[in-house]
Design goal:
Length: 183
Amino acid sequence: MKSLNKNIIIPASIVLELLLTTATFAQTKTLSLNIPLLITGSLNAEHSFVLSKRYSCHTMVSWNPFEFSKEVKIKHLNALSGIRLWHWHTYSGFFNGAYISGAVYNVGYNSTRYQGHYYGVGTTLGYAKMLSKDLNMEFEAGVCASINSFDMYEIEPCGEFLDSTCKFCLLPFKLSISLVYVF
């Protein structure tokens, strides 16, 4: 019976502590828009919430269903989730981030189209500049280690299958300039 109480009390106290810690801060959530992604036609949004004075949890989704021309397309559905460590306090100043990420994509340029998916982990560095009480500008860049699995086709509609590949890649990650609403 004593071990059962420990098994219930310890996780319950951790959850209660997280809830109470989050509730003590005035601005505990954000909603942001990555401007470079929007310029490329990708609809995107990122939501975050405070975990403690120096940690926040972030989730972002990006979707681009558009074709720019028959030769160029950047169709994708990308999702990532992660945690940031803030060096001063949440939503202000420098931060480091750690993320998990995944996407499905159908990207084409020149004479080849790549259709596949990737899963990866990444780390970032960034800076949040307070513009007003409720508005920030964030700059973030990092690197991602990912497993990419894709098929290659000729770019024409119903193009001929060329090859299938699965490989490890180290790529630039989360290159963003974001407008952030803090509430």
